[in-house]
């Protein structure tokens, strides 16, 4: 079954609008785990708009599931955090410092030489590495050559096509990229703008090991409650496993 990693960035974003510590990132993680989430994801950024270093350290002390830390390894503070925490998985994302949100994968024709030693350092610490990649089958070979364990497909184009009612061509592109990654022996994750509405189709793609979902999940939790929302995502993933 495809694993669900709950991204808690938006919980931290709401908390940061006040100074009284609520909602609690740690409590949100506890509820997600109680509901059956397989992992917790955070993406600390240089401006600390949501997740702060202290959140990462607090989560490390309490998590009983996989810990996935996302971010750009060329921001010095990011690697400092990762070296100290040693998460189960590190997802490398090519964000710029002031990026509104993650909006593209690595261009390994330019970045491979810089990324390769970072991947090796992380792996030497026992951390599984995933590269945030656009759904282009031709890029999978470069990801393999860079030495990564997994790739995370940047799923916003799929989510946009789903909203617009023209998903099939884009879905096939993602399926082709996943097939190529599978053939190369790369693990496959997915994330960005996945939701209760669009996840069911996406996870029929063979070989998706993990999805990381935050923005939509937290928004849906405002209506359904966090525990119930996580349960709904897990139900979809379970049903996808039966279909695929």
Question: Would you kindly provide a written description of the structure presented here, covering whatever features stand out?
Answer:
It contains eleven helices and eight strands. With 244 residues, it is an alpha/beta fold. It has a single domain, classed as Aldolase class I (TIM Barrel), CATH 3.20.20.70. Strand 5, helix 6 and strand 6 form a beta-alpha-beta unit. The protein starts with a strand and ends with a helix.
Brief write-up:
The protein is α/β, with parallel strands linked by helices and 244 residues long. The protein is 50% helix and 17% strand. It has a single domain (3-243), classed as TIM Barrel, CATH 3.20.20.70.
In oligomeric terms, what are we looking at?
Answer: single chain
CATH class: Alpha Beta
CATH topology: TIM Barrel
The main sheet orders its strands as 1-2-3-4-5-6-7-8
Using DSSP, what is the number of strands?
8
| Biggest sheet details | 8 strands, parallel, barrel
Are there runs of 5+ residues with pLDDT below 50, and where? none
Alpha-carbon distance between the two ends = 10 Å
What's the alpha carbon Rg, rounded to whole Å?
17 Å
What percent strand?
Answer: 15-25%
Could you estimate the helical fraction of the residues in percent?
40-55%
């Amino acid at each position: 079954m495809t694993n669900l990693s709950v991204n808690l960035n938006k919980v931290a974003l709401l908390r940061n609008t006040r100074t009284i510590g609520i909602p609690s990132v740690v409590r949100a993680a506890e509820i997600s785990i109680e509901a059956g989430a397989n992992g917790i994801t955070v993406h600390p950024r240089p401006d600390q708009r949501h997740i702060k270093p202290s959140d990462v350290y607090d989560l490390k002390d309490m998590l009983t599931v996989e810990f996935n830390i996302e971010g750009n390894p060329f921001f010095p503070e990011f690697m400092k955090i990762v070296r100290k925490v040693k998460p189960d998985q590190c997802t490398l994302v090519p964000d710029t410092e002031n990026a509104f949100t993650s909006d593209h994968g690595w261009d390994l024709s330019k970045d491979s030489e810089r990324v390769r030693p970072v991947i090796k350092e992380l792996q030497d610490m026992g951390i599984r590495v995933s590269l945030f990649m656009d759904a282009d089958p031709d890029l999978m070979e470069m990801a393999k050559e860079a030495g990564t364990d997994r790739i995370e497909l940047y799923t916003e184009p799929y989510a946009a096509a789903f909203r617009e009612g023209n998903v099939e061509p884009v879905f096939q592109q993602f399926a082709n990229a996943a097939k190529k990654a599978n053939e190369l022996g790369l693990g496959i994750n997915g994330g960005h703008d996945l939701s209760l509405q669009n996840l069911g189709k996406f996870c029929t793609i063979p070989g998706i090991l993990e999805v990381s979902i935050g923005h939509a999940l937290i928004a849906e939790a405002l209506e359904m409650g966090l525990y119930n929302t996580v349960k709904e995502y897990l139900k979809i993933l379970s049903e996808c496993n039966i279909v695929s």
